[in-house]
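Think of the structure tokens as a kind of shorthand, similar to the way a musician reads notation: each symbol stands for something richer, in this case the local conformation of the backbone. In the example below we present two proteins back to back. Begin with the first one, reading the sequence and then the tokens, and try to describe in your own words what changes along the chain.
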Amino acid sequence: MALNNVSKISAVEIDSAALGTSVLLTGISQRSLNYGFQTVVLAGDGLVDPAFIAAQNISPVLSFSTTSLGSLFALGGSAMLRDGIAITNDADNVGCKIWYTQYDNLGNVTSGDNHKLVTISKGKLCPKTISGDKGQVASADCDLYAIWDEDNAILTTTDSQALPDSQGAASAFLGTVVYINGTRLQGIESCSFDCGHTEEQVLDDANIYPILSFLSKRNPTINITTLDLNSAIDFGVSGEPISASTTLFYRQLDESTAVPYADAGNNHISIALHDGLLNLDSNSGGGDDKASSSLIIIPKPVTSGSSNIFTVSTNTPIAI
């Protein structure tokens, strides 16, 4: 029989009992589900071919990119970006839903309950990076680590499913407006916020699935490229301590007018840093290219041992 349909990635829904709510993440541009399947293959006794094959470790990880920054931060704001969030299930919440949209052989979305759904019943969602280049829509890369709840399957796949009612990107933010110690840095070409999570999964000695996932280290960094060479050079070779007035802003686009909301509008997203160090990494240029400077910010909490390393605000103006 010939292939008569194909599938494409669709939305991801965080339907976690730990949050007590369901949030649909749309605007998914990239997505992969790595099943993390490792096998034991044994021959022995002088054999050249495998005599025993079994699963040794299955540690699924869902990775995706989304432009729905508002919906993502609605899951937990500062704590979500800093620590990640728990994905759990109960009678009313299934955990995380991952849809695949089926298309027929004419390239149309198949009508009705003909789509595939993969469910992760327990896990941990960790944002990895938020990127916003000049003139481009900002996006967030996230990983969701599946954990076995010792009851349900770590992953379940269900056929003949309806798609969620709302699909497609519902909002967009431009990146990135940057303030350094209260002064707006001009000429931003790119800005990437790396959450710096080191997440570890742990198996016990009785099963092949991870039973917990924990944050073992957090070392966030912000990488900025700017055409404002004069301001960048003024930071000096020994670095510049940063204060609480160092903030990244992501400007929301107004769909009704096709232009961004004004700075003063309470429509934007900010990530405020509290302490740390800014380093001038390099100045470069060549031929007819404009010279640019690369800056690296390494934030830290004001108080050693505190987890208050940065603060996320939504529905905020672009102002210090």
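Once you have a description of the first chain, move to the second and do the same.
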Amino acid sequence: MSKTAPDDDGRETLSETFTDALGDSLVRAMERNSSNPAKVQEAFRNINAMNHAKLYELLGPRSHDSGVDAWLKRPDLVSREHGRLFWDLDLVHQDMETERLGRHLPRATDAPRLFLSYSWGHDDETIFWIEEFAGWLFNRGYDIVFDRDPRHKAKGFTSNDLLWLLAGCSQMIALIDDGYQERIRDPKRTSPLCQEFALAPHFFRQFRQPRLLGLWIKGERLLPPFTPQWVVDYRDEDAYRARRDAAFPIRQYKVVGVAQDGSVREVGPMERRSVRDTVHSMLTEQGAEGVAVRDVTNALKPT
């Protein structure tokens, strides 16, 4: 995920490293909210409900160093040079404007949230495969945690910060190449990638999420702990595009509004790009006292 620091050389154990990483963000949040420590304690106590907006409210803005900033921006710059835009910019701007105005949408019930785990490297083919896949998921209405997400890059989240979002994800998707396997299989590695891979099972035991799914995107062979039991072979381009459509259907939502008299109105199904305006209309034009959003994708599947 967000690799804002190079791989360590085993200066600490892995458990010590991710404990320090989580503690770093907690200390920053306490310093920023020193007049209200209970707010911070409550937020981190309910870590499985953490999202980008809550995390940013707790931590505030931060700048990446120049090397990390250049790395995070590189895929977008090169894709623009070649006329390839992976992210739906209308939807990106819609989300950013909604957040700027403080109109945070209710989190959709039954909606998956996907944490994208990958190894930083210098292979352009892999870099752009991952960027295209992340943008494709977002464009189809998925809630994702991805360090190069254009909605959040300017916030300055570090790899330590993004670990706090892992517990709130329904699934961690490991995008596996040789570099990924090498890092995970080396017991001396304590990089951010190793931290999130080790931390996910701890959260799963506590919260029953995130589930782990591996997508094998490049390489000659899988080595333990990577096995076909939980890793899907996406190396062939045609097979990848056929399988991904079935595995990650376009998300469909319903917006449910409750009026003052207790009557309920449902609108949908709709794609995510229509959710914001529907919620706003229910609250401002139709007088709803409360609004909820439900992901109904699975209910719409043919039986």
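Compare your description with these statements about the second chain. Residues 253-300 form one domain.
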